[in-house]
Amino acid sequence: MPGYEVKMGFGLHVGWSIEGAIGSNYKIDASYLSPNVNMAARLEGATKVYGVPILISGSLFDIFSIHTQNYMRQIDCVEISGTDEIHKLYTCDLDPT
Q: Structural domains in the chain?
């Protein structure tokens, strides 16, 4: 398929979650539940809106070392639905090729 290109988006956040087995007698998958998992999923979805491959929450950015923070840039400050807080969003500019 000439010119075909795969694009993936990643939403990165930090926090607690609960792992649970979901499925039947024939197939079981692990699922993770928490507001933090939902936040990571929302960030992943927003990568398309911002046109970046990685969106990083301010909570995760804050625990990065200064050296790592130097590779990041803030791209927005938003209120994400389902939360009452303002969240800073960061990305890491990179060439995925």
A: 10-92 (3.30.70.1230)
Sign of the C-alpha dihedral computed for residues 89, 75, 53 and 49 taken in this order: positive
pLDDT, tens only, 74-87: 999 998 776 788 99
* pLDDT single digits (tens) 22-80: 888 888 888 888 989 999 999 999 999 999 999 999 999 999 999 999 999 999 999 87
Look up residue 47 and give its two tokens.
């990568």
Q: What is the pTM assigned to this prediction?
A: 0.81
